[in-house]
């Protein structure tokens, strides 16, 4: 890509050190990001994969700012950037519109850029702002579907882009020394408050009123704007919590959403509203790579609690409840007062719950009314009552982003799913296992709990 495409009248290459007026903060941040992205293939691959672009070794990138296009739709309609991708076989292009700080996208402005892209044969419009979406093909604004017949619309949040950069650095995915230096500098730049990159820091203004209504035992209405606003805030915080946990573990953490809901943001929002009205709860499920199970997070507005949990199948090679509980307890090194174990029983037996400290002293106390029954699965939960902090728009976000990583450190990083051990050779089945003999001696001496 040595020459500019025919549809570009004028424009500057995206610069690492843009010369722009102090009032052009959005263009400055966009220029710096685009300049770095075009020089780091790993970063381009991670970001462009979300807009259905495959990046290969032969792929080349160019980015422009202050672009004037051949076909105009309205005077003054000038995008913040233009990205060109050449795969060797095909060329792909996207207009970039960036917002920073608390500036939000508008449907009118995005519609104009979609019209501009269509008029010039540009494939897509990518918006970047501090607004959160669950997927890149879900825009914060709704525009006419007619405009999207020939132009794709995507959205990236600045916080997501910053997290992608962090993960690439943690994983040492960029091996070239010069590219690594650029990536580290970009991380420092995006992390500084002066850039205007913001995370989701507070719930909607109606959060306090809705939580108070639930506390007063007042019925919530599905059609109420304040209820919809709370559900929408939940979606935004879910996305931000994914990014927060991704930074915490150094790998991409994703929310697990039913396929039919992940494809339809409006249906997802309606589902959350239904749960909020009927059960006074807001729930999300997170998938951490290589974790023993998904992590469930349930916000209970009536109890003012945050409950975080993971589920495991009980080991079937352990024959008693006590032995199965001891198997679980050995994976939990700390007796945090917030930690609970819930045992699930065969048939219609109701689940039983005890705190970890109590079970450490006597694992049999979790047994249900049927002394011969053994639990088939366990939940490990961390439940924290926030009290007055629950209704605070900022304090609620602060607490949920503290509680979930805390659960991961106490539980998620330690749990391992049970697997049936491989069968022993036939000739060795009747021979004593030296390891088991040593364990039996330790149990007899009281150094280890007995598996019963």
Automatic annotation (TrEMBL):
This is Stress response protein. Residues 428-440 have a biased composition (Basic and acidic residues). Residues 419-452 are annotated as: Disordered. The lineage of its organism: Bacteria, Pseudomonadati, Pseudomonadota, Alphaproteobacteria, Rhodobacterales. It comes from Roseisalinus antarcticus. It comes from the Bacteria.
């Amino acid at each position: 890509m040595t020459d500019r495409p025919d549809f570009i009248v004028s424009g500057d290459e995206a610069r690492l050190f843009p010369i722009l007026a102090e009032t052009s903060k959005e263009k400055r941040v966009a220029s710096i990001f685009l300049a770095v992205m075009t020089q780091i293939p790993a970063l381009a691959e991670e970001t462009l994969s979300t807009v259905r672009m495959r990046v290969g070794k032969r792929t080349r990138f160019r980015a422009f700012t202050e672009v004037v296009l051949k076909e105009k739709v309205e005077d003054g309609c000038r995008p913040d950037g233009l990205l060109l991708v050449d795969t060797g076989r095909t060329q792909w292009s996207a207009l970039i519109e960036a917002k920073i700080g608390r500036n939000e996208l508008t449907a009118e402005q995005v519609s104009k850029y979609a019209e501009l892209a269509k008029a010039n044969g540009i494939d897509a419009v990518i918006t970047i702002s501090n607004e959160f979406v669950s997927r890149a093909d879900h825009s914060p604004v709704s525009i006419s579907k007619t405009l999207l017949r020939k132009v794709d619309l995507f959205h990236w949040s600045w916080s997501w882009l910053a997290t992608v950069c962090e993960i690439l650095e943690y994983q040492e995915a960029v091996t070239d020394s010069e590219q690594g230096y650029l990536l580290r500098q970009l991380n420092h730049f995006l992390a500084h408050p002066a850039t205007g990159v913001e995370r989701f820091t507070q719930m909607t203004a109606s959060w306090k009123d809705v939580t108070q209504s639930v506390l007063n035992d007042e019925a919530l209405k599905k059609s109420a704007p304040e209820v919809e606003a709370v559900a929408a805030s939940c979606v935004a915080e879910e996305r931000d919590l994914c990014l927060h946990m991704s930074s915490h573990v150094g790998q991409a953490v994703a929310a697990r959403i039913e396929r039919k809901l992940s494809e339809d943001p409006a249906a997802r929002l309606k589902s959350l509203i239904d749960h909020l009205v009927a059960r006074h709860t807001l729930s999300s499920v997170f998938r951490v790579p290589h974790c023993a199970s998904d992590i469930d997070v349930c916000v209970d507005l009536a109890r003012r609690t945050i409950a975080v949990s993971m589920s495991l199948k009980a080991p079937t090679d352990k024959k008693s409840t006590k032995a199965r509980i001891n198997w679980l307890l050995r994976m939990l090194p700390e007796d945090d007062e917030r930690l609970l174990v819930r045992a699930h029983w065969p048939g219609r037996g109701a689940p039983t719950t005890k705190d970890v400290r109590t079970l450490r002293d006597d694992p049999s106390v979790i047994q249900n009314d049927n002394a011969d029954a053994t639990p088939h699965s366990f939940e490990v939960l961390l439940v924290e009552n926030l009290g007055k902090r629950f209704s605070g728009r900022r304090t609620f976000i602060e607490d949920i982003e503290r509680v979930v990583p805390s659960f991961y450190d106490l539980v998620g990083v330690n749990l391992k799913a049970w697997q049936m051990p491989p069968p022993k050779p036939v000739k060795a089945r009747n021979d004593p296992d030296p390891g088991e003999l040593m364990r039996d001696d330790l149990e007899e001496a009281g150094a280890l709990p007995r598996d019963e």
